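Researcher: Please translate sequence to structure tokens.
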Amino acid sequence: MGVSANNLGVRAGEDWLFRELDLAVAEGECLALTGSNGSGKSTLLRCLYGTQRPTEGQVRIFGQAPDERVPEFRRLASVLMDDSALFDELSPRQHLELLTRSYPGSPEADQELFASAGLDARMDVPAGKLSAGQRRRLLLLGAIARPHQLLLLDEPERALDAAGREWLVELVRAAKSRGAVVVVASHHLALVEDVADWTVDL
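Model: Translation complete:
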């Protein structure tokens, strides 16, 4: 099993965000997390990435406990969280070149790769001068491009227009076809319907 959780719970103060949660997501499947703001979607993603310890229960990612401090685990997981950021002074090309050096096996920052994201005309523009939608596309491109077996996406549709959301759907489907486990937290029901094999409403 790619991602599993047993009796998982996270408490915030005196209240539980979620409790007694069981998950089982196989390779090539997508789990969508839905629910209102503050329901615990981002918290659950952080538990799966190992940046937050659950109050109770356990998580296993391809048989191991998640911990983003461990290099072996970081080679398994790629993540786009709500606080993911870009270097404003670096261009999209430079961001992907940095990724290539940091994660061997990432594709070269070529025209075709940027064209797939609609960024081929902006490859050498500083990220600080990109629109919100273009910045989101670049963040998604970076998350997808690096090698991974687990892909965690926190509201990836944010700032994307209709064409961008269609591109996002294709990205998730391609990741699934390569055998990755994808977990998406989203408010966009059409996206959930297009990519999810399982849905958990928090």
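Researcher: Any highlights?
Model: Helices lie at 41-49, 71-74, 92-102, 111-116, 132-145, 162-177, 189-195.
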